[in-house]
Each structure stands twice: as structure tokens, then as C-alpha cells.
Task: inverse folding
């Protein structure tokens, strides 16, 4: 038997196709490309939205037209031509009342390929799923169990019709339309997404889960998620994403808004493996996402993310710690390989007294990729005794990739306690040989070392998600030793 | 078990091993001694299949099979084990998880199913008792923050778990206090049988008082320059290496 060298590994990685890179041929209805007021109106009309929603979108569109794409992030890419994208694509004939059994078999087959058997998810994991394919939410499960507790979990389009008072009251309050270029774009054209409301004092009995997927070529996906945890309530929310491989870059610009009222707690977990592009850096998803949560008194928001996909990632899940004693957490694993670029991190805005935040960021870079952590810890003048702990660790594989950390601190209150730790390490030949000597091949050795490096964050994920995340880490780093 | 013929090996074009001949039969214990830098660890690494070293001449036979083309993990699957002079740290990976992975990867290579968790636990319990290891220790990250002695004891624990045919112990005694040395040596002796073999690399007689060698070899400047019985180790302990260097260089 011949030796399996690093070169063999590298070769295999190049030829290894994106695991989820298949295209499902479901009939879908796509709007003409380009963006103008008429398209915005058409989206709103298609979705049978009330007048106020249409106006809200049009306002956002006006704001967006005046804005320019941000350039401060440590990413370099060919700017998307926003007039060359179709802003709406939906599988045809979606009836919001249909159950999972009525779902297009092709679609179900696609979920299977993705490794998510909805049935199994339902039975074994106690997960309620809201699946967004391209833009329309196709099937929502577990609705009944949830509604008995007064929990609302549905697509945002449905919520706009069924709970307009809630949507209207909260949408855009955490991420205002003019917050940034992509948020404005999303506000104008968002196609679907999830809405969730947990009533006062209710502990949501199951993990709520949404699966996003971009299917149609040349379309953008613009989901909008709004999650409200009323006083003293608790919810754990899971979000997973995949996209088929395509040569052109697909745009994904989502907005997620979380509201944790007094004494409420929200755990928001994401596993993102949008198509990262091929080994030469062709294709892949541009992932420009704005995620932000507001904490009222004694409230807590935890963001946990495992980011292995996308050609370009621009994403900073943040917490506004407005209420006294509120807590914000950010746990992140970001993996980049080949030509991927990630600029991700968080903002912790401390406004209330005795507010606490924790940031743990694990960046893993391989190939020719660039991986940046960008974080802001801001302590307001009235935020007495605010505390932050940040830890940013980078793991490098090979000599051609880069890891960068940009921690920003703005403290306007002298009682603030801010700690920042950062490390950079490399997977060493000696570590690999040690594993090899114990009978563990190089690929498995890397997976083991990377999992060990990421353990602090993986441990924060709900069990069934952690297993999937571990597998994803292995897939995205296969053969990346250098 | 192991037969090394005229082995020459180099790293970055620097010749380090310059014609080693060695035969180790099943059931035997061989000690390799020699001054620092003479090539002892290099020999161990080359037998274990570290790729950075290039074999320029000669060969290594394991149970009659030339293993030159085998990757390090394949040699491990065939029963080669190296207790490292400097064990590396793997943060976040517990000793238990590491051992589970190692054992199951080896089983997979042999076409076997994963070891059932129950058997794994039983084995961990037995072997940790053998080496008097506190089981809490096994939840810690591999070698991270371990004392020198803990690292070495952990190496022998791994050896006990993997039950190798050929174990090479590279300066396992350094860093061990007298009690730990006794425990570790006792562990190695319990694992010894007529079907396996041990190569002990050491500077000191004290380990060889516990693990008694059948043969002692002196490695100097990339060659085995003297071989003998266990008395040779006593002689080296008393006289040092200078007389050997003089003999060779004369
Ligand atoms: N990776 C390496 N690169 C260059 N020289 C090395 C390397 N490893 C070992 N050597 C050299 O090979 C010689 C033998 O080293 P080693 O096998 O560690 O000796 P010992 O274990 O007998 O003390 C020394 O001169 C050492 O400097
Ligand atoms: Mg040595």
C-alpha cells in the first residue's frame, strides 16, 4: 500500500464536491431580474400583504437606493450586480395549510439528501421545523403542540396576515431599515422567514428549527426572522442553511431580530454551510447578514454559530444589553478553506447596570482563505459594573491562509471590567504524527484536533445540532493539512 | 518480530542513521543506550514511520514484511507503538476520547466494528488501575498541563490500551520519580509476553533494574557500536560513554 501523503489529501480535497451541491428540479416561479419600486410592490402583492407592509418596504427601498455597500470589512470580492438578481423565487402552488404529507415528494427527497428527515426530526428530536426553500416557508410542523402553549411559530408572511399587530409593532425596531446597506435591501425585498412569539412565562418545550436553502439559480435569498420572547419566557431556536453549488455567486442577505423582554432568555443557534465555492474560488454564496438582539431587564441572549460555508461571510450577531443585569453571549466557530473569506464577530452594547457579556470565537483557517474576527465591546456611561470577557482563538493550517482579529473597545464608564485574550496556533506535524502513530490517519487526526479546538463552542450547541456541526467541521476541512 | 538491515536515514539531507543492524525476536527486551544526539529517537521515529525522515538505504522488516511503504498509521495498525520522548499536547481532546478514536480506527483498519462502549469502559478501568492512574485524569485534555511524569505514565497507559506487538519506549524514565518509575516498569512487565517485544531507549540503569533487558546496544553517531547482555548496561552506568567513543574513534 502506498503512503497517503498530504499531496494526495490536497488533491482529494480539490476534487471533492460540495456535499450538498445538487439541484432539485421543482417547478418554481421566478420574478424578472432587477430591482425597482415595481418589483418591491409585486413582491408585496404576491404575498398578499397589507398596505402598511407595502409602504414599509417602499420606504426601505428608498433608503437603500441612497446607500452604498460597506467596504470596511476585511473581505475582497466582486460586488454583486443588484440589478442582475431575481428578487423572488418560490416553488409554485404553496398552500400554507397543507401538512407535511402533502409536500412535493421532490422537495422531501431534497430534504433527505440534506440529511434532514423531517419525520425523524419530528419524532426523535422533538424539533418543530419551519423549512424555507428559496423564499417561501413550505411546511410547518408541530404547530398544534405549540399553539396549546400560546406559542406562535410560523412563516413571517403568515404572521403578517395573522398577527399584524405583533409584526407591525416590532419589525425593524432592533435592526432599523437604515441600519446598513444589506439590512435596507432585505427590508425592501424580504421574501420569507420565520416569526416566533413566546408568551409571558412560557418555556418553549422544544427546540424551534428553521432550515433555509437556496435552490433556484440567480436568485437571492432574503429571509427575515423576528423572534419575541415575552417576560420570563424561554426559547431555543436553531437555524440551518445550505445551498446547491453553482458557478455564479448567490446573494444571501438576511435580517434577524430578537427581543428578550424582562427575565426572558433566547438561545439562538446557527449552523451555516452555504455553498463555499469550488477549490479555485469560483461560485459560492455571499452571506451578508444582520443579526441583533435586545435584552430588557435580567434578560439573556446567547448567539451560537458554526459557520463553515459561504464564499464571503459578513456577519456580526450582536446584543444590546439595555436592561439592568442583562446578559449577552456570543459563541462562534468560523471555518474557512480554499478561497473563502469570513469577517465575523459580534457587538456587545452595554447600556444597563451590571450587564455581562461573554465572547468566545474560534477561527479555523485552511487553504488560501482569510478568517477575521471583528468585535466591538461598548460600555455606555450609565452602565455601572459592566463586565466583558472575550477570547479569540485562531487555528491555522498551512502557510497560505490568514487569521486576523480586530477587537474594538469603547468604554465610557470607569467601573467597567473588560478582559480580552487571544491565541493563534498551528496544527503541527508533530501532533499529526502523534495521532498517526496511534493508528489515526491524517484526515481523522485533523478532525480530532479541530474538534478539540472548537470544543468550548460545540458544547454550547443543543445535542443534535452539535453532532451535525462536528460532521460539518470534518467535511469542510477534509484534506486541508499543510 | 523486527529485523533492521543496514538502515540509513537522513533528514533534510543530513545523514543521521548510518547503517543500523538489529534483530528483535518475540518475547525479547532490548535496551538501546548512547549519548545524546546519537540517533536513538531518530531510529524510533523511522521505525514508527515519521515521514520527515528519508530512508536512503537498507530496510525494516516487521514480521518478515518490508514496511518501508507503509504510513505511520498502518504500522500502528500492525502493532507498532512508540512511547514518545516528548509527547505532544492536543488541547480539548480528552485522553479517553483520544484512546477511543485510536482503538476504533485500528479496529476499522482490521475490518472490525467499533468496540462496544461497555468493553471500552471495562478496559479503561483495568488499564488505569494497572498504572495507578486516577480516572479523573483521563478527562483532561491530552498532555495539556501534564507534568513530565504524568505524560510518561499516560504514554504507558496508551500502550496498555493498544496492546502492541512491538513497543518502543523512548526515554520513558525521564521525568519519573522512583515510585512512578516502579509503577510504569511494573505495567510494562505485566504487558510483556512471549508474543510481543519491547525496545527500551534509556540513559540509565535504574529503569533496566525493573525492566530487565535480554540485550543491550550502544548507539553512537548513527551506528550500533557495541552489543551485549544486561551487564553492558552496568558497565556503561559505571564508566560512562567515553571509553566507547574512544574505542570507536580510535
Ligand atoms: N528534525 C530534525 N532536523 C534536523 N536534525 C535533526 C532532527 N531530528 C534530529 N536531528 C538530529 O539528529 C541527531 C540525532 O538526534 P536524536 O535522534 O534525537 O538523538 P538522541 O535521541 O539519541 O538524543 C542530532 O544531531 C539531532 O540534532
Ligand atoms: Mg532522544
Result:
Amino acid at each position: 500500500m502506498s503512503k497517503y501523503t498530504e499531496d494526495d489529501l490536497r488533491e482529494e480535497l480539490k476534487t471533492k464536491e460540495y456535499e450538498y451541491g445538487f439541484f432539485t428540479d421543482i417547478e418554481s416561479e421566478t420574478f424578472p431580474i432587477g430591482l425597482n419600486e415595481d418589483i418591491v410592490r409585486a413582491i408585496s402583492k404576491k404575498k398578499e400583504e397589507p398596505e402598511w407592509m407595502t409602504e414599509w418596504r417602499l420606504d426601505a427601498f428608498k433608503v437603500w437606493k441612497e446607500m452604498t455597500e460597506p467596504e470596511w470589512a476585511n473581505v475582497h470580492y466582486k460586488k454583486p450586480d443588484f440589478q442582475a438578481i431575481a428578487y423572488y423565487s418560490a416553488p409554485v402552488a404553496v398552500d400554507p395549510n397543507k401538512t407535511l404529507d402533502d409536500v412535493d415528494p421532490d422537495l422531501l427527497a431534497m430534504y433527505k439528501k440534506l440529511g434532514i428527515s423531517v419525520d425523524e426530526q419530528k419524532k426523535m428530536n422533538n424539533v418543530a421545523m419551519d423549512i424555507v426553500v428559496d423564499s417561501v416557508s413550505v411546511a410547518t410542523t408541530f404547530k398544534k403542540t405549540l399553539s396549546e402553549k400560546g406559542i406562535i411559530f410560523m412563516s413571517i408572511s403568515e404572521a403578517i396576515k395573522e398577527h399584524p399587530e405583533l409584526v407591525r409593532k416590532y419589525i425593524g425596531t432592533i435592526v432599523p431599515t437604515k441600519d446598513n446597506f444589506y439590512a435596507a435591501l432585505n427590508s425592501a425585498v424580504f421574501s420569507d422567514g420565520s416569526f416566533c412569539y413566546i408568551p409571558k412565562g412560557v418555556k418553549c418545550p422544544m427546540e424551534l428549527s428553521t432550515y433555509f436553502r437556496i435552490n433556484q439559480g440567480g436568485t437571492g435569498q432574503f429571509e427575515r426572522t423576528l423572534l419575541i420572547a415575552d417576560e420570563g419566557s424561554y426559547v431555543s431556536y436553531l437555524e440551518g442553511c445550505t445551498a446547491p453549488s453553482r458557478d455564479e455567486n448567490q446573494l444571501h442577505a438576511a435580517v434577524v431580530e430578537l427581543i428578550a423582554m424582562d427575565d426572558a432568555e433566547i438561545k439562538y443557534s446557527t449552523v451555516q454551510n452555504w455553498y463555499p465555492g469550488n477549490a479555485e474560488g469560483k461560485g459560492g454564496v455571499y452571506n451578508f447578514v444582520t443579526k441583533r438582539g435586545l435584552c430588557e431587564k435580567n434578560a439573556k441572549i446567547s448567539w451560537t454559530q458554526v459557520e463553515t460555508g459561504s464564499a464571503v461571510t459578513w456577519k456580526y450577531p450582536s446584543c444590546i444589553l439595555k436592561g439592568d443585569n442583562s446578559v449577552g453571549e456570543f459563541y462562534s466557530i468560523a471555518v474557512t478553506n480554499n478561497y473563502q473569506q469570513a469577517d465575523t464577530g459580534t457587538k456587545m452594547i452595554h447600556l444597563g447596570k451590571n450587564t455581562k457579556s461573554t465572547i468566545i470565537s474560534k477561527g479555523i483557517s485552511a487553504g488560501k482563505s482569510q478568517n477575521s474576527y471583528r468585535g466591538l465591546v461598548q460600555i455606555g456611561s450609565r452602565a455601572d459594573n459592566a463586565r466583558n470577557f472575550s477570547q479569540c482563538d485562531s487555528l491555522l493550517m498551512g502557510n497560505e491562509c490568514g487569521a486576523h482579529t480586530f477587537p474594538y473597545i469603547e468604554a465610557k464608564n470607569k467601573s467597567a471590567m473588560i478582559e480580552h485574550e487571544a491565541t493563534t496556533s498551528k496544527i503541527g506535524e508533530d501532533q499529526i504524527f502523534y495521532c498517526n502513530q496511534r493508528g489515526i490517519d491524517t484526515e481523522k487526526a485533523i478532525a480530532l484536533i479541530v474538534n478539540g479546538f472548537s470544543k468550548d463552542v460545540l458544547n454550547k450547541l443543543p445535542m443534535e445540532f452539535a453532532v451535525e456541526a462536528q460532521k460539518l467541521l470534518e467535511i469542510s476541512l477534509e484534506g486541508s493539512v499543510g | 518480530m523486527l529485523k533492521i538491515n543496514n538502515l540509513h536515514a537522513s533528514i533534510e539531507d543530513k545523514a543521521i542513521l548510518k547503517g543500523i543492524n538489529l534483530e528483535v525476536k518475540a518475547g525479547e527486551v532490548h535496551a538501546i543506550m548512547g549519548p545524546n544526539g546519537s540517533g536513538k529517537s531518530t531510529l524510533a521515529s523511522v521505525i514508527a514511520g515519521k515521514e520527515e525522515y528519508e530512508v536512503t538505504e537498507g530496510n525494516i522488516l516487521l514480521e518478515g514484511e518490508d514496511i518501508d511503504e507503509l504510513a505511520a498509521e498502518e504500522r500502528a495498525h500492525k502493532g507498532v507503538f512508540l512511547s514518545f520522548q516528548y509527547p505532544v499536547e492536543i488541547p480539548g481532546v480528552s485522553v479517553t476520547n483520544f484512546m477511543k478514536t485510536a482503538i476504533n480506527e485500528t479496529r476499522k483498519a482490521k475490518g472490525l466494528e467499533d468496540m462496544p462502549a461497555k468493553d471500552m469502559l471495562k478496559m479503561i478501568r483495568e488499564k488505569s488501575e494497572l498504572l495507578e492512574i486516577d480516572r479523573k485524569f483521563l478527562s483532561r485534555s491530552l498532555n495539556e498541563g501534564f507534568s513530565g511524569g504524568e505524560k510518561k505514565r499516560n504514554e504507558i497507559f496508551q500502550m496498555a490500551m493498544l496492546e502492541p506487538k512491538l513497543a518502543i519506549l523512548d526515554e520513558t524514565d525521564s521525568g519519573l520519580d522512583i515510585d512512578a518509575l516502579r509503577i510504569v516498569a511494573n505495567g510494562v512487565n505485566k504487558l510483556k509476553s512471549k508474543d510481543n517485544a519491547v525496545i527500551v531507549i534509556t540513559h540509565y540503569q535504574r529503569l533496566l533494574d525493573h525492566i530487565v533487558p535480554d540485550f543491550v546496544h550502544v548507539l553512537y553517531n548513527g551506528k550500533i557500536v557495541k552489543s551485549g547482555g544486561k551487564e553492558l548496561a552496568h558497565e556503561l552506568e559505571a564508566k560512562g560513554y567515553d571509553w566507547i567513543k574512544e574505542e570507536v574513534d580510535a
Remarks:
- Chain B has a mean pLDDT of 94.
- Chain B has nine helices and twelve strands.
